[in-house]
Design a protein that fits this description.
This protein is of the alpha/beta class and about 575 residues long. The protein has three domains: about 350 residues, TIM Barrel; about 90 residues, Immunoglobulins (Immunoglobulin-like), CATH 2.60.40; about 130 residues, Immunoglobulin-like. The protein is built from 13 helices and 35 strands. Helix 10 packs parallel to helix 11. The longest helix is centred in the N-terminal third of the chain and has 18 residues. It is elongated, with a radius of gyration of 29 Å. The N terminus is likely disordered. It binds (3S,4R)-3-hydroxy-2-oxopiperidin-4-yl beta-D-xylopyranoside (XIL). (3S,4R)-3-hydroxy-2-oxopiperidin-4-yl beta-D-xylopyranoside binds next to loops. The site of (3S,4R)-3-hydroxy-2-oxopiperidin-4-yl beta-D-xylopyranoside has 6 residues, from loops.
Length: about 575
């Protein structure tokens, strides 16, 4: 016996030791893990397989920049960018566009001619239309404007701004670029991207003020990209955290767009100590991003030390990425993996709503709830409590889980919350538990199931023969119809969590519901458990009163001071 257990334990340990790809882990976090790529390496099999295995997002390192993609006034070279888009699509990876407006890598035809602001304005609009338009609907995000600020918070002087510029003052030219980009690709999230603006400093203050102004005036900006080209001296993490907090507090996303940590190298080789320091930085940045639901991507500038801009740009430095020149994972890789595996999930009370009405604010015993926004969970939909690694705890009592996927979990509030004022809710996935949130408990919070699951329009209502009540099959006056709700609260006798009801007599709702159809009170001959359904769904039989008008009528269930959602209807004739 003993030997068998040891063997079993050994097998389990061996299983646990197999590394999970960064991509699999990021999918469980609902975030993007990306890398800047160069399509000229796609034919190198280790480059391609590593990229597709480890990353769920790719960004052209150069292929979409103005010079490379628009080499002549009327000529475009889309091939390299198209290759990246094809590669990403065939490996189900997101694509981040980079970039539309920058001071660098501009073509000679543009910089050497003396265009007027009017001409430059139409050249830029045309460029954005053409490039963003070509990839419209295919990109998750665009860096619309890159590196427009100086370190002292002033605007960088260059072609698009003031030398001679497109005729707009201050951040007006940036705003204009965002508006053009939004018109060309309404689906892509639009980012302002910069370096040395990770911590709170003069430059990040200026970017923040612009973002705040853009948000306030409805300029189509969705986020700020933090490049994060680091040495081992990154600046204080707490200051980066404060900066990400203020940006995400505006409702903007943050994406880490160009992470690399360059090390001093000797013939390309870094010391073990510096590799360990680097690993810690990769870990800490990953963990930092995972503290914010609106930090939605972590991307490195390349992924293999074989191809990195660092040695060419910073002589004496290198070894900046997660994989070495032979595509072997470095300590940095393992540390990103570790951060993705162990960060606590985030949840918020605002994400917890009734599964039928989507009303929030409180929970009732036995209520089917949806928890939106948890930042860790199965990457694909996981049905049923048996197989689920997801747990939702109410004062430590595990709720039956109906299904779970990162960002959305359906569960049934344990009946044990009955009589409480509030409950502590914790969410757990693969053993990582969130901080507890406090949620009010109400005796009942009825939500009526709708036919199309929107919570609105025709209810999921059947007549005595089991036929769905609809416009073509309306309920008649005097008919008894069955309405299904959740949030009806405690029952008599008490219900058991997760119990599916087969044999009557079924428990009855403790708080007797009143039902109004078209504003008219209707008799309720039965309100309690539903045959074949799980405890927490209640069936309410209602007789359509003779005073109810014909047509599509509102239907409201009231228990005590709680009413079901408005906008739910039933057809009567
Ligand atoms: C770099 C590329 O990596 C190089 O290949 C190219 O020669 C110059 O540009 N910030 C950015 C990136 O936004 O576009 C830059 O990429 C690196 C710094």
């Amino acid at each position: 016996m003993r030997v068998r257990y040891v063997l079993l334990a050994a097998l389990l340990c061996a299983g646990a030791a197999f590394p999970q790809s960064l991509r699999d882990l990021a999918d469980q976090r609902g975030i993007k893990i990306g890398a800047a790529v160069d399509p000229s390496h796609f034919t190198e099999s280790l480059y391609a397989t590593t990229l597709a295995r480890e990353f769920n997002q790719a960004e052209p390192e150069n292929a979409m920049k103005f010079g490379p993609i628009h080499p002549g006034l009327t000529t475009y070279n889309f091939d390299p960018a198209d290759q990246i888009v094809d590669f990403a699509q065939s490996h189900s990876m997101a694509i981040r566009g980079h970039n539309l407006v920058w001071y660098n890598q501009l073509p000679g035809w543009l910089t050497s001619a003396n265009y007027t602001p009017e001409q430059l304005s139409s050249i830029l609009q045309d460029h954005i239309n053409t490039v963003a338009g070509r990839y419209a609907g295919k990109l998750s995000a665009w860096d619309v404007v890159n590196e427009a600020f100086n370190g002292d918070g002033t605007l960088r002087s260059y072609l698009w701004y003031d030398s001679p510029g497109i005729g707009l003052k201050g951040t007006g030219y940036i705003e204009q670029a965002f508006r053009w980009a939004h018109a060309a690709d309404p689906k892509a999230l639009l980012f302002y991207n910069d370096y040395s603006a990770e911590t709170i400093n003069t430059k990040s203050d200026a970017i923040y003020r612009m973002a705040q102004d853009f948000k306030a005036r409805g300029v189509p900006i969705d986020g700020i990209g933090l490049q994060m080209h680091f040495t081992t001296n990154t600046g204080p993490l707490a200051s980066m955290e404060a900066n990400i907090k203020r940006i995400t507090d505006l409702g903007l996303e943050v994406q880490i767009t160009e992470l690399d940590v360059r090390l001093p190298v000797n013939s390309g080789v870094a010391s073990a100590a510096s590799l360990a320091t680097q690993a810690q930085i990769y870990h800490d940045i990953t963990a930092l991003c995972l503290k914010f639901p609106l930090c939605t991507a972590i991307q490195s500038w390349g992924f293999t030390d074989k191809y990195s801009w660092i040695p060419g740009t910073y002589p004496g430095f290198g070894a900046a990425l997660e994989f070495d020149t032979n595509y072997q994972p470095k300590p940095a890789y393992t540390s990103i993996q570790n951060a993705l595996q162990t960060a606590p999930p985030l949840i918020s009370a605002a994400g917890l709503v009734n599964g039928a009405s989507y009303a929030g604010g409180a929970v009732a015993p036995g209520e089917i709830v949806l928890l939106y926004g948890a930042t860790f969970g199965p990457s694909t939909l996981d049905f049923g409590a048996q197989t689920s690694q997801t747990r939702l705890l109410f004062d430590g009592v595990a709720a039956p889980i109906l299904y779970s996927q990162v960002g959305q979990t359906a569960a049934i509030v344990p009946f044990a919350v009955a009589g409480k004022v509030s409950t502590q809710v914790e969410y757990e996935y693969l053993g990582q538990r969130s901080a507890a949130i406090t949620v009010s408990v109400t005796p009942a919070q009825p939500g009526v199931f709708s036919l199309d699951s929107s919570g609105q329009g025709a209810g999921a209502i059947v007549d005595a023969s089991g036929q769905i009540v609809s416009r073509n099959h309306p309920a008649h006056h005097g008919d008894v119809i069955s309405v299904f709700i959740t949030g009806g609260g405690a029952t008599l006798p008490a219900s058991q969590d997760g119990q599916v009801l087969f044999d009557g007599p079924f428990p009855l709702l403790a708080a007797t519901p009143q039902v109004k159809i078209g504003g008219v009170d209707c008799p309720v001959p039965y309100a309690g458990g539903a045959s074949g359904l799980i405890a927490g769904v209640a069936q309410i039989n209602v007789q359509v009163a003779s005073g109810v008008a014909s047509g599509e009528q509102s239907l409201i269930v009231v228990q005590g001071t709680s009413g079901s959602q408005s906008g739910l209807t039933v057809w009567v004739q």
